[in-house]
Amino acid sequence: MQLYYIRHGQSINNANTSNETYKGHSDPYLTEIGKQQAQLLAGFLKDRQAITDPDSWNSQNRYGFGFTHIYTSLMERATETAAYTVRALGNVPFSAWVDIHEEGGIFAREEEDKLKGLPGKPRSFFEQNFPELKLPDALDESGWWNRPFESDEERQLRADRVLAELLARHGDREGQPEERVVFVSHGGFFMRFMCAVLQLPWRQAAHGRRSWFLLNNCSITRFDFRKDYVTIAYMNNTNHLPVELVTG
User: Fold this and answer.
1) d(CA 120, CA 112)
2) The pLDDT value given to residue 121
């Protein structure tokens, strides 16, 4: 099984990282730059969806991607990013995967309610804006989050759970074609997911340093999961974006 981890396009929060007066949006939407990034990503993937030479070694996807499933976080910036690619490809199953959301969940940023859990978008929002998206049966008008702020202890457990479920759903099976899965997700969750895949201690590096796996907006990272090993074929690939649209 191949997993392609795509970070969402630039959000309004990303664009205001250095703005000291900006309060932060609880469920940030894509900026115009973020939409451009997502559109360019979609066009790139559409042009390379077909596997043109199935017998050649394709570790860098020079012969295509051949996606079989696309999953998205239910945070608006990820869902919109994913939708551009889904619409460009036209025939790849598109589903929500609630647990690939960003760390913390949906929560207030204002001082008086800081870190208070919020509802998240309701079912009608997704049905109106992303009709292609298969939603969880349990999602209704009360919103998809409706929980307290996610604690540190819960975050790695969630990533471990996602990895186990991914392998159970899409891991290689004898006699079955290989599945090529897309996650459209988030930078913070990527750190947790990498810790799950490689069994790394959280943010620890040599000589007392702190570690971080950088993901730019709309970058692509590829994992190959086999029976006895996992390969990271490449990480944070933004070659499909012009340099002026590479953002953090």
Assistant:
1) 19
2) 98
